[in-house]
Amino acid sequence: MHDIVVCYATALEGLGLPGAAGGRALTLVETGVGPVNAAFALTRLLAAGVPRAVIVCGVGGAYPDSGLEPGDVACATTET
Which 3-state string (H, E, C) describes 12-40? Predict the structure, then answer.
């Protein structure tokens, strides 16, 4: 079973992610872009057991002219 899973869509988004945090190993998962790819990747992972936590990270639309800067944290309040 995986304790903490960190998901991201593309290899670029996963660059520099650590393999551990707070003394706990992290399972890094590149899911591919889009909800279908994310669902497929997480379903395969969850078949091995339910992790303690799943963290999803990435650019989340923070492209040039979006008003977001590198290092900004954005939390979704709605889903489209």
Answer: HHHCCCCCEECCEEEEEEECCCCHHHHHH
Q: What angle do CA 28, 56, 11 make, to 5 degrees?
A: 50
Helix (H, G, I), strand (E, B) or coil at 1: coil
The domain tally of the chain equals 1
Instruction: Please state the pTM of the whole predicted model.
Output: 0.71
* pLDDT (tens place) for every residue of the chain, 80 residues total: 568 999 999 998 888 888 888 888 889 999 998 889 999 999 998 898 888 889 888 877 677 787 887 778 877 777 66
Query: What domain range is 58 assigned to?
Result: 1-80
| Cβ atoms of residues 9 and 31 within 8 Å | yes
